[in-house]
Amino acid sequence: MIIKVKVITKASVNKVIGFEGDVLKIKCTAVPEKGKANASVIELLAKYYKVPKSKIKIIKGMTDSRKVVEILD
Q1: With CB atoms 3.0 to 4.6 Å apart as the test, which of 12, 37, 40, 45 could cross-link to 32 if both were Cys?
Q2: 34, 60 in Cβ contact below 8 A?
Q3: What does pTM read for this prediction?
């Protein structure tokens, strides 16, 4: 499954907000430097979809707030 994700960094909570259209909005407390926010996004998605973190891969947007994420079955 491939989904589009919009990440809001430096938020007060780590939370998957939900879908707005075809984009999943996520808030994370991590700062967007040295991959910290990306790691937080992967962790939140793993919990949300109940899959191991190893099954989630950011395929586009490593340095952008808008990402394309692949979740393997």
Answers
A1: 37
A2: no
A3: 0.92
